[in-house]
Amino acid sequence: MGSGHEGVRREIAAAAARLIADGGLDYGSAKTKAALEVCGTRAPKGSMPDNDEIDEALREHLDLFDEGHAERVARMRDCALDLMDRLEAFHPLVTGGVWKGIVTEHAPIHLQLFHDNGKEVHYWLLDHRLDFDSATVTHFRGQGEVEALGLDWRGEPVMLSLYRTDDLRGALRAAAGQGAQRGDRAALLARMEAGR
């Protein structure tokens, strides 16, 4: 890839990071809109950044422009650990911004739960008098959709995505060329202790 494409990739990544941080856009929408902003049309072949490049640009953006970022990450990670303790029966894994340590104002704590019956999670929430909304999100393996429940925990937005117990097998394996996309409670604590 030529250096011209590299420069365009960095510009698109920076613009997408700004749109995610300031506008709450998801990665796909932010990349598309950023490419239009930077290129005036679709990005030239080979110049669209991947999600890891967006993450790097987002981390830089938040470090520069969001004075409360470090405090937000610490607060939401503490909240995630508390909720993971309580939802231990569902083998919770944390993913998204809280896992990566790049939490925008609009990002929820995203926990992936693994169960034999999704109604068990509903019953747990109802037993704890927690109101929740139900939607769907794409399966982390890209195979169809799974139920996602939105709620508040200790004043923080939370999304619980519900997977079958069988999905837990291999969930912690990193994809080729990528770091871990999710972790259990011990892995999150290790990240926190390492300052990552």
Task: Give a description of the structure.
Helices cover 46% and strands 18% of the residues. With 196 residues, it is of the alpha+beta class. It folds into 2 domains: 3-65; 69-193, Beta Polymerase, domain 2 (2-Layer Sandwich). Strands 3-4-5-2-1-6 form a 6-stranded mixed sheet. The protein is globular and about 55 Å long. 31% of the residues are buried.
**Order of helix and strand elements from N to C terminus:** HHHHEHEHEEEEH
Please give the alpha-carbon distance between the first and last residues.
30 Å
User: What CATH architecture of the largest domain do you see?
Assistant: 2-Layer Sandwich
User: What is the multimeric organization of the chains shown?
Assistant: single chain
Helix content: 40-55%
Overall mean pLDDT score? 89
Looking at the structure, the CATH topology of the largest domain is Beta Polymerase, domain 2
What's the β-strand tally? 6
Shape: globular
Give the helix tally: 7
Going by CATH, the homologous superfamily of the largest domain would be: Beta Polymerase, domain 2
| Beta fraction | 15-25%
Question: Domains counted in the coordinates: how many?
Answer: 2
Largest sheet: 6 strands, mixed
Give the class from helix and strand content and strand pairing.
alpha+beta
The first-level CATH class of the largest domain is given as Alpha Beta
User: pLDDT below 50 for ≥5 consecutive residues: which ranges?
Assistant: none
Largest sheet, order of strands side by side?
3-4-5-2-1-6
